[in-house]
Design goal:
Layout lengths: L7 H7 L4 H10 L11 E2 L7 E12 L16 H8 L5 E5 L7 E3 L1 H9 L4 E4 L2 E2 L2 H5 L5 E3 L1 E2 L8 E6 L3 E3 L2 E3 L4 E4 L4 E4 L4 H23 L13 H14 L2
Helix pairs in contact: 1-6, 2-6
Length: about 240
Amino acid sequence: MSTHTLSDDTRNKLKKVSTASVATALFKRGLRNQFIQGVTPVSPKDENMVGPAFTLRYIPAREDRNPITVFRNADHPQRVAVETCPEGHVLVMDARKDARAATAGSILVTRLAKRGAAGIVSDGGFRDAHGIGQLAMPAYCAGPSAPTNLTLHEALDINVPIACGDAAVFPGDVLVGDRDGVMVIPAHLADEIAEECTGMETFEDFVLEEVEGGAPIIGLYPCTKDENQEKFETWRKKTGR
């Protein structure tokens, strides 16, 4: 489990970079499976979701253990996870990529948002997805699903290592979500990934301007010609980037 603290500076940098840049930076370090497969934003937001992971693990439901009355239990793990996820964290749910039943609904997700969570991610379904989409807090799932979680899922473990969309997620890992999806950054790499991606995106903004102006991509992206590096340095001075 990570003891790394996500600084405000790193959080703010990660809010401005793309998951594509994060994926490339992690790939350079040999990490190739950090994208949570199969989840999309319930409703796209203007700002990235960024926060340390707080996890909830579901196992397949067994009928004798999951009658509707289990929600009366004060220690039900799904409810406890919502009430204990720390402010600024992302609640990440392992539903074994099974979206045939919900892993949360709008009431629980609204409560999570009111408690100051940075977001929620599930590789299963959400019910009342329209209501979740109207919240300011980012939410990602595999798709809308009306059936209650008890139909297929039993919430079991809180804040343990999980799988979510085929990616390993350890408590404290830093999640970054944009309109494309969600990346998982090992906590100890978060600061350097944020710094590197900020530089990458500055260069890519320059490249996009050049391409929109008719420049050929060879020798520009990646930058292998001195003349393009000189153009970039001039552009940085001009734009203050």
